[in-house]
């Protein structure tokens, strides 16, 4: 459990065979349609359509490690428009951890979906057809690769996703990322102790 002045957070993890995760929790056609309806579609290098083949990108790994952080605001009924700011410290922590895991174990990281953290809002190079400024940091999300995160968190971790009502946040937010690898057991305690 971690506490900030504005929220508490708790990490949950689950590991399962990557083939099983792909077979049971991926619905590429359904989530591709969701992505196409998003205003970010094709406007950020972190979002689809990708320049790589997603099936190939997912292949070659034995294990899918899913990491979820449940973030509970201390004040109820916060404005939905505050979500990005509230989640930012946890997103930064996830993305640092994921890039470190890639360095250590050579796997494939999947970041939380949302506005890319690495350039000021509205300045992504993609709409102008120019290359990403930080391809070494940017990773696709599990949703953008076709995974059903509602089923993932509810069935594998016992965390139903919650959505806001009107302009207000739900009772908690859930940030989900992933790491596909061939490294055997991975201990994430080090990243939790750094919080
Ligand atoms: S790092 Fe910058 S250029 Fe690359 S995807 Fe993110 S916002 Fe776009």
List keywords for this structure.
binds iron/sulfur cluster, 5-stranded antiparallel β-sheet, 30% helix, 195 residues
Query: What share of the residues lie within helices?
Result: 25-40%
Task: Report the sheet with the most strands, covering strand number, pairing sense and barrel closure.
Answer: 5 strands, antiparallel
Protein structure class? alpha+beta
Order of secondary-structure elements: EEHHHEHEHEH
Q: What count of domains describes the coordinates?
A: 1
What is the number of beta strands? 5
Number of contiguous helices: 6
Q: What is the typical, i.e. mean, pLDDT?
A: 94
What order do the strands of the largest sheet run in, or round the barrel if closed?
Answer: 1-2-3-5-4
Described by the principal axes of the CA atoms, the overall outline is globular
Strand residue content: 15-25%
* Weakly predicted, low-confidence segments: none
Ions, cofactors and other ligands present here are: iron/sulfur cluster
End-to-end distance: 10 Å
What can you see in these coordinates?
- This protein has 6 helices and 5 strands; from the N terminus they run ββαααβαβαβα.
- It has one domain.
- Helices cover 30% and strands 18% of the residues.
- The termini are close together.
- By secondary structure, the protein is α+β, with helices and mostly antiparallel strands.
- β1 (2-3) and β2 (7-17) form a beta hairpin.
- The chain has a 5-stranded antiparallel beta sheet with strand order 1-2-3-5-4, sandwiched between helices.
- The longest helix has 23 residues, at 83-105.
- It binds iron/sulfur cluster (SF4).
- Iron/sulfur cluster (SF4) binds at residues 44-46, 116, 118-119, 124-126, 132-134, 138.
């Amino acid at each position: 459990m971690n506490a900030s002045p504005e929220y508490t957070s708790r990490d949950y993890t689950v590991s399962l065979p990557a083939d099983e995760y792909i077979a049971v929790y991926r619905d590429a056609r359904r989530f591709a349609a969701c992505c196409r309806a998003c205003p970010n579609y094709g406007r950020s290098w972190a979002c689809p359509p990708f320049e790589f083949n997603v099936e190939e990108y997912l292949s070659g790994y034995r294990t899918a490690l899913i990491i979820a952080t449940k973030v509970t605001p201390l004040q109820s009924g916060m404005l939905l428009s505050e979500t990005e700011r509230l989640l930012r410290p946890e997103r930064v922590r996830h993305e640092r951890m994921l890039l470190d895991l890639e360095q250590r174990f050579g796997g494939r990281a999947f970041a939380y979906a949302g506005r890319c953290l690495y350039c000021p809002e509205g300045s992504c190079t993609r709409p102008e057809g120019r290359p990403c400024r930080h391809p070494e940091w940017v990773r696709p999300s599990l949703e953008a690769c076709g995974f059903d995160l509602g089923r993932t968190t509810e069935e594998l971790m016992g965390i139903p996703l919650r959505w806001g009502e009107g302009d207000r946040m739900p009772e908690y937010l859930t940030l989900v990322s992933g790491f596909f690898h061939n490294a055997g057991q991975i201990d994430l305690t080090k990243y939790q102790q750094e919080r």
